Amino acid sequence: MSKIVVGITQGDTNGIGYEVIIKTLSDARVLEMCTPVVYGSSKAFGFYRKQIPETENINTNVVASARDAHPKRVNIVNCVDDNAQISPGHLTKSGSQAAITALKCAVGEMKKGYIDVLVTAPFNKRAVSDETFRFPGHTEYLVSEFGAKDGLMFLCSDKMRVGVATNHLAISKVSAAITEERILSKLRLMNESLKRDFGVVKPKLAVLGLNPHSGDRGLLGDEEIKVIIPAIEKANKENILAFGPFSPDGFFSINMQYRFDAVLAMYHDQGLIPFKSLAFDSGVNYTAGLPIVRTSPDHGTAFDLAGENKANPQSMLSAIYMAVDIYRNRKRYDQMNADPVKEETEA
Predict the structure, then answer these.
(1) Which end of the chain is least crowded, N or C, by CB within 10 Å?
(2) What is the side-by-side strand order in the sheet with 284-288?
């Protein structure tokens, strides 16, 4: 059986992307499990590898495409200009543009079936938000590229999973964006992902409130009464085991998250601050709802650590492991739930 081909995008050239990628791929277990293909620059890869002495013996293979990947080496697709300046720790236009170039190249190859899963190193969202990339982040871009109806930013670790109803959105716009249909859509995605991607038979979902103390029965806001509770009730009617809304301030402090298979937060920081506080080193950002598998480490570019050989690769390693596990889980789930009558008719 052929190994799963993992496409890895370099992220911002000047961030910690290459460092965590190189450290991760120096782990022999990764090459035993999958065939890695890095989308970026062999020159940049070599530059950062010299900063990490213990990884100098990595066997690399420069290829024109993932379809030519060597199964026992770290493959590099040179899609970024080798003449681009490398300035660790500095936010530059070329470094940001390289991240987008690598991402678009990997997505193109995934559409052709050359890679099985996608793992993305981080880029600076403000820096890439220009006329060539009109998306606030990877999640929104991938939802658009693969024609998904919706996507869920799903932060996952071994013990905890947290999704968000609104992704990269200003706080001033969150309340208006919290609608019954949006919450219901995210709960559907979360429920289906837990069953298909993570092997949970009957997922139990916790829903957080938007306001302090979940609105305190309307005293501190009425979104819970008018929007969130009706959405939960509709989800229950669809046999989705959703509970809440729970007061956001006390939920994580008393470890309620471990009583559920996943938690739906209303906005970015409400979910990501507690998640990263509890699982920063091993957390993974997964995009649920896509027809393809995409994961990412849950940290940013960390320009302050770039080029210092101080970045922890554990989140990148976890992102690769999770992508492979989800790919296998999906295949198993789809085979178990295939309609034999339909398949026989199609044959």
Answers:
(1) N
(2) 60-63, 74-78, 34-40, 4-9, 117-120, 293-297, 284-288, 152-156, 161-164, 262-265, 204-208, 241-246
Each residue of 268-281: pLDDT tens digit? 999 999 999 998 78
Q: Which amino acid is at 173?
A: K
Nearest in space to 206 (alpha carbons), one of 249, 243, 235: 243
What is residue 263's three-state secondary structure? Answer: strand
> CA angle 268-40-108, nearest 5°?
75
DSSP code for 143: H
Q: How far apart are CA 152 and CA 329, in angstroms?
A: 18
Asked if 34 and 74 touch (Cβ cutoff 8 Å), the reply is: no
120 phi/psi in degrees, rounded to 5: -110, 130
Please enumerate in sequence order all residues whose Cβ is within 8 A of that of 141, keeping only pairs 6 or more positions apart, or say none. 103, 133, 135
Express the helix, strand and coil content of the chain in percent, nearest 5 each: 45, 20, 35
H/E segment holding residue 245: strand 241-246
Mean pLDDT to the nearest integer, 265-293: 93
Paired tokens of 291? 């027809």
Cβ atoms of 224 and 209 closer than 8 Å: yes
Per-residue pLDDT reduced to its tens digit, 86-125 = 999 998 888 989 999 999 999 999 999 999 999 999 988 6
What pLDDT is attached to residue 137? 82
User: What beta strand segments (E) does 139-236 contain?
Assistant: 152-156, 161-164, 204-208
